Amino acid sequence: xxxxxxxxxTLMILLLSLPISYVANAASTNDxxxxxxxxxxxxxxxxxxxxxxxxxxxxxxxxxxENVQAIExxxxxxxxxxxDVQTKITEIQQIIEEKKEQIVLLQDKVYAREGIMEQRLxxxxxSDHTTIVIETLINSDSIGNFFERIGAxxxxxxxxKKILDEQEADLKQIEEDKKExxxxxxxxxxxxxxxxxKKATLEENYAKxxxxxxxxxxxxxxxxxxxxxxxxxxxxxxxxxxxxxxxxKKEEAAAKARAAxxxxxxxxxxxxxxxxxxxxxxxxxxxKPKSSSTTKTKGSSNNNSAKESSNDSSKxxxxxxxxxxxxxxxxxxxxxxxxxxxxxxxxxxxxxAVDPGVIPLGSKVWVEGYGVAIAGDTGGAxxxxxxxVLMPNKAKALQWGRxxxxxxxxx
Length: 411
Description:
Elements: H1 2-126, H2 129-138, H3 143-278, H4 287-313, E1 318-327, E2 351-353, E3 364-367, E4 371-377, E5 386-390, H5 394-400, E6 403-409
Parallel strand pairs: 1-5, 2-4
Antiparallel strand pairs: 1-6, 2-5, 3-4, 3-6
Helix pairs in contact: 1-3, 2-3
């Protein structure tokens, strides 16, 4: 009896220590979860801030692009003006060339007249106009010839005057044409210098705007990269939170199992106490009956043990109906399950993939048409009342197909 009491006390101490360990683990897990959630919130705030900055940069880039387009239009307009001025310069240059050719012709005429005038001057050196007129009139043969000679003399004198007048007019025209050419050339040069200066200013502004645009685009690209990294970090944190929540579910399931064991141990202790109270005190005169009574008690105890053994062998627990499919190590990328079982090295083991929220991981489960298996794996498609039973190979998995079966969660 003392040994029984000692065993029950030891068991109680062990069971009482388990909740304390669970509470410590649960507190640590919750702290980790809270830390991850805070980190996720900070990460989300960072993403929102970066997105706002990116939007502001995007608007600034658009504004710069509009300015660049306006400058490009102004440059194009200025280039057209330069082209028009260049065309006008070409036209004026052609006119100038024509003027120059006309000046050459006038100069030739002047030169020719200078020869005639030189000859006339040489003749006048020997006699003046009066002597020539008198000699011409005296040598006339008749009155008619006299008048003809007077007309001829008048014509010669008028011709000399005309030559002098044309010479003077041509020389004057030459000077005026030269002055006009100089004025037109200077005007066009001034216009061209002004337009070239304006073009240089526009190109400088265009270069500055383009440089600013490039910097803004680089900033935009950098922000996009930072947002992408933040999104990746967010996904990582979310995955970590999911893992922590899964761990919490496992710990809660383990706590429930421990609570059930504790209740069972408590009940056993109470039964032992009741049995101790029910036993009569032992005396020397009652030694033989005690032996007989002890024998009966032992027999009764053996019957109870046999009965308990019989109950343990039967299938009892939470019953569910689930949709069951099958898989093998040939269908998976990894040969190791969630709980660390290597299904490639142990293809014939009885193992099922479950949703831990419905069937606790690590529990023993009886599956209709399959047998008793370990809930040792999870899957992306295994959600809710679904399971995936492990088969030795892909052919066996295909042969299983999809079934609705009854299961019993044994522990």
